[in-house]
């Protein structure tokens, strides 16, 4: 069984990665590029795939196994890049072995599962951080700063129009855009506003030419706690004039408006006598490399990432609430989604340690919806 080493002060941090699929390969390259970490073990149900993936990324020294149980190495932390359905079992095993976990989004397939994951982190006393890689884009950081200087915000919009032909599981999903992709955009709206959503009205549909079985387009309007409205217009079967994968954003605020095309420096226009100053680019590692830097900072210095498990549940709740709203054709309160999921999680069998934490929670406060 992998054991926790617990010495992250000096030298590279010893990492075990679980999952060597397509995103797993990206993580293996990212670990290889970061001198603060070293891969000591790689776990995948397919050990041949894992060996090949490790070797390709230059991790010849990494030990391969098909489960954390079967891996005989000591380590400081785990990076979890398995499929969403496997996040709970694999992350919980790591947490209860004393290992902090950086887990790919989404935290779990359901909000109830996400709450159980957050409770597992609390019960284990270890960090569970969710990698929301699109928070780590330098021009997005500039945009956040620019928007933060425009006074009260009335409206935020994000247009997301892409036309990828993935093939495979996404083409057969019931809600491919909302469930597989929109969490990135929804999570980014929370990061941008520094605020949380309270309700959503959403319509989901499939354009007649769509090559997806399920609904590949959606329009959603979220109301945030301070009254800001966030409008999301998205389609995954929108050929021509495609937007960035980060979407095309506009903020309308008291002192003016600011736009970000998702890839380049943002722009703004102010109606007061202040000059528009575009903040300098932080020039820090982006996407999953940025996530890894924040995780290392926690391991070395004890900092708490904004995307720790309990705080990240609301991003998944935005997805689940949007899907539910589209189904019932009514606005849905995010708090109702959270409290129903908490009831479900408490009723499910997660073992006594997780159950005790779930039972002790004022769940709306824990996820950041009250107080
Ligand atoms: N941040 C992003 O932009 C982004 C992009 C793509 C995927 N993802 C996320 O990354 C994760 C992985 O996606 P992917 O596309 O690499 O999937 P994938 O199917 O290509 O790979 C998943 C791997 O996990 C392994 N696995 C599954 N269950 C396991 C278990 N119990 N123990 C050990 N290994 C197990 C599989 O054998 C497979 O090799 C998902 O959570 C997905 O949402 C994020």
Task: Describe the model.
- The chain is of the alpha/beta class and 371 residues long.
- It has two domains: 1-136 and 285-311 and 333-371, Rossmann fold (3-Layer(aba) Sandwich); 138-270, Dihydrodipicolinate Reductase, domain 2 (2-Layer Sandwich).
- Helix content is 39%, strand content 22%.
- It has twelve helices and 16 strands.
- The chain has helices spanning 22-33, 47-56, 84-96, 111-124, 138-148, 169-172, 176-193, 287-301, 309-328, 334-347, 352-360, 363-367; strands at residues 3-4, 13-18, 37-43, 63-65, 74-75, 77-80, 101-104, 128-131, 153-161, 197-205, 217-224, 229-235, 248-253, 256-260, 267-270, 332-333.
- The strands form three sheets. The chain has an eight-stranded mixed beta sheet.
- A hairpin with a 2-residue loop joins strand 13 (248-253) and strand 14.
- Helix 3 (84-96) runs parallel beside helix 4 (111-124) and helix 7 (176-193) packs across helix 9.
- The chain binds nicotinamide-adenine-dinucleotide (NAD).
- Nicotinamide-adenine-dinucleotide is lined by residues 18-24, 43-46, 49, 81-84, 86, 90, 104-105, 133.
- Nicotinamide-adenine-dinucleotide (NAD) binds next to helix 1 and helix 3.
- Residues 148-258 form the GFO/IDH/MocA-like oxidoreductase domain.
- It holds the Pfam family GFO_IDH_MocA.
- Residues 14-130 form the Gfo/Idh/MocA-like oxidoreductase N-terminal domain.
């Amino acid at each position: 069984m992998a054991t926790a080493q617990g010495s992250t002060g000096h030298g590279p941090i010893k990492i075990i990665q679980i999952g060597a699929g397509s995103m797993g390969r990206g993580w293996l390259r990212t670990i290889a590029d970061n001198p603060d970490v070293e891969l000591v073990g790689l776990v995948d149900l397919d050990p041949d795939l894992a060996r090949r993936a490790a070797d390709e990324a230059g991790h010849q020294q990494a030990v391969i196994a098909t489960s954390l149980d079967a891996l005989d190495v000591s380590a400081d932390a785990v990076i979890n890049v398995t499929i969403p359905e496997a996040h709970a079992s694999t992350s919980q095993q790591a947490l209860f072995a004393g290992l902090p976990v950086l887990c790919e989004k989404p935290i779990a397939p359901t909000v109830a599962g996400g709450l159980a994951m957050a409770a597992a982190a609390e019960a284990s006393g270890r960090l569970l951080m969710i990698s929301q890689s699109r928070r780590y884009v330098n021009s997005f950081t500039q945009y956040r700063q620019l928007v933060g200087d425009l006074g009260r915000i009335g409206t935020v919009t994000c247009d997301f129009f892409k036309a990828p032909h993935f093939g495979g599981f996404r083409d057969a999903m019931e809600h491919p855009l909302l469930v597989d992709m929109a969490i990135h955009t929804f999570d980014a709206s929370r990061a941008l506003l520094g605020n949380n959503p309270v309700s959503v009205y959403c319509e989901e549909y499939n354009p007649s030419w769509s090559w997806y079985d399920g609904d590949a387009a959606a329009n959603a309007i979220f109301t945030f706690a301070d009254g800001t409205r966030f409008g999301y217009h998205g389609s995954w079967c929108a050929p021509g004039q495609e937007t960035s994968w980060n979407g095309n954003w506009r903020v309308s605020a008291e002192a003016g408006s600011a736009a970000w095309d998702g890839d380049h420096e943002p722009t703004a226009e102010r109606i007061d006598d202040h000059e528009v100053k575009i903040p300098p680019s932080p020039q820090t590692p982006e996407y999953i490399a940025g996530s890894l830097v924040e995780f290392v900072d926690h391991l070395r210095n004890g900092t708490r990432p904004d995307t720790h498990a309990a705080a990240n549940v609301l991003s998944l709740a935005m997805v689940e609430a949007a899907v539910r709203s589209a189904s019932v054709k009514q606005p849905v309160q995010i708090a109702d989604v959270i409290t129903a999921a908490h009831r479900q999680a408490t009723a499910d069998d997660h073992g006594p340690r997780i159950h005790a934490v779930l039972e002790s929670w004022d769940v709306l406060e824990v996820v950041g919806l009250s107080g």
